Amino acid sequence: MRAWTRPTVPALPGSAPLPVLHDTATAERRPTRVVDGAASLYVCGITPYDATHLGHASTYLAFDTLVRIWLDAGVAVTYAQNTTDVDDPLLERAAATGVDWRDLAASQTDLFRSDMQHLQVLPPDHYVAVTDVVSDVALAAARLLDLGLAYRVDTPGSTEGDDVYFDVRAAERSTSWHLGLESRYDLETMTRFSAERGGDPDRPGKRDPLDPLLWRAARDGEPSWPSALSAGRPGWHIECTVIAQAHLAAPISVNGGGSDLVFPHHEMSAAHGTAMTGEPYADLWAHTGMVAYQGEKMSKSLGNLVKVSELVAAGHDARAVRLAVAGHHYRSDWEWFDADLEAAEARLDRWARWASAADDAAADDEPTPLLAALRHALADDLDTPSALAAVDARVASGSTATAVDLDAVQALLGVDLRR
Ligand code: ZN
Fold first, then answer.
1. 3-class SS of residue 38
2. How confident is the model at residue 162 (pLDDT cuts 50, 70, 90)?
3. Nearest CA to 23 among 256, 234, 249?
4. Nearest 5°: CA angle at 264, between 190 and 107?
5. How many angstroms does the Cα of residue 194 sit away from the middle of ligand 1?
6. Strands, E assignment, 44-162
7. Are 129 and 84 within 8 A, CB to CB?
8. pLDDT-based confidence at 365, cuts 50/70/90?
9. Cα-trace Rg, the chain
10. Cis preceding-peptide flag for 10 (omega within 30 of 0)
11. Of 52, 280, 365, 402, which has fewest CB within 10 angstroms of its CB?
């Protein structure tokens, strides 16, 4: 599927350190895995029915920063991302608003692309719609049935066949994966999150309450695709596993997403992946904090969304939106205040005035102290607040900006000050 236009990333002089990131699975800071100069990244994409609020933006901007510092360090990056363009919440929204679910998904995916482009996010190399991999998901589920790691659950609601579930206990017995490997959660927490986040721990007929759905047999009025299993559609976690494995070798250097994906989504994606390849699924798990607004976590169900497209339509500079988000460390939970955007616009103004007096003629190819400071801050678990502070200090010092300084801000922070 088409992604979006790639923004310009100036090459920077000198050499950059490889990034160290906090790993959810070990609760430690670890170097990112680079093999033969190459790294891979998978970030879970949106379910396209309410794009793109600042919680989403914060996640994709954090991993954009990672891609940018990998590129600066000379790493060849392969980045894959899905879009969950068929799933219960999308279908429910479509039904509630009287819109065809395909039209809703297409229009919201378009909006997401335009938001990412406004924010100067580098596009993934593989941007994959779940509806384009349905038969691959069915094959993966069939394979897990063959391996004895999945089973059918009686599904009276379907005339097409039975739902297929993954057997977490069988996977624990026969693979290196185990419950809590990635999330570090206890059983009680996992069961609670399973119920809250799309799972069905109470469904009768399952071998274990935490067993996740791999394949949903067709129901009346629901979209479905023919497959070797039954007419139906993919479960949520297996879609990411299948897309990641099609494009990225195991283990993925970094698997990322919002912290609400830690369990069950990422834990189960890892389980499916390890079951299919025998390899660990990801080397490092990186998660972004939740963004609140008006005192509550920004969420579709509460309706307290601040959307990138609405800020841009209201005349705000997307560079200021990017700076406002970058003012928070990606791992922290934080609250958006409208005043944050005003502060970011004032900051962008100061930076732009400094840039307009730049000595572009001095085509100096040496790293500047500002470039070194940005590299140091960002390689240290994507410390964007310190990176912004480094630019602030340079701007406040009154010394003239150089071409390398402006290139560094554009390449590493995704903010083009020459515009
Ligand atoms: Zn995912």
1. strand
2. very high
3. 256
4. 145
5. 15
6. 76-83, 126-129, 150-153
7. no
8. confident
9. 22
10. no
11. 365
